[in-house]
Amino acid sequence: LSTMSWHIFVSTMSWHLSGSAYNVGGNEINLSLLETTRLCETITGNKITIKSEPSTRPADLPIYITSNQKIYNTLNWKPKRNAGNILNDIYLWINDNEKTLSALIN
Is 76 in contact with 22 (CB distance < 8 Å)? Predict the structure, then answer.
């Protein structure tokens, strides 16, 4: 579903979803930070130097696990797109909106 279709779908299903939180990530789309970085390098053509940080910082999560099983069980919904497609769309959106985004961070 497109983002707009998803919002319309969720709005019409609000009676069924009311009061519940749903995770739509996880399962077959789980990526480590390193895997995500390598995928972003492939998409953008930019090389990012990564080094190891031996100490754990206070905000670091030792493990991060997500599952979309609840929304699948409730609505029989699961992502149809892979991480590469999603990250590529984000990259294209950032490029298309670079002027607006630049104004927000400068």
Answer: no
Distance CA 94, CA 54 (A): 32
Q: How far is CA 100 from CA 68, 95, 97, 103, 106, in A?
A: 33, 10, 6, 5, 10
Asked if 43 and 84 touch (Cβ cutoff 8 Å), the reply is yes
Per-residue pLDDT of 65-87, as tens digits, reads 778 888 888 888 888 888 899 89
Please indicate, yes or no, whether the overall pTM of this predicted structure exceeds 0.85.
Answer: no
For residue 71, count other CB atoms closer than 10 A to its CB. 19
In whole angstroms, what is the distance from residue 3 CA to residue 52 CA?
36
Whether 23 and 65 have beta carbons less than 8 Å apart is answered as no
Q: For helices 98-105 and 83-96, give the axis angle rounded to 10 degrees.
A: 80
